[in-house]
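User: Structure please.
Assistant: Input sequence and predicted structure:
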Amino acid sequence: MSTFRRKATEQEVKGVGQKVKGVAQEIAGRASGDNDLRARGELNQVGGHLRSRAAEAGRKISKAVEREKTRGRR
C-alpha cells in the first residue's frame, strides 16, 4: 500500500472519530440545554464528514492511479 493511500485511510478513520465526537457533543448539548456545545457538536460532525469523504476520494484516486500503472507494465 502506498504511503499516500495509507495516510488517506488514516484521515478517513480520524474523520469518523470526529463525527462520533460531534454526535456525543450534540447529544450532551441538547440534554444540558447548552446551545454552544450542541453547535460545536454539529460542526464537528460536518468537519468529520468532510474529512472522511476527502480522504476516501484521495484513497480511491490513488488506487486507480496504481491500477493504471500496473496495466501499462503488461
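The two ends are 20 Å apart (CA to CA).
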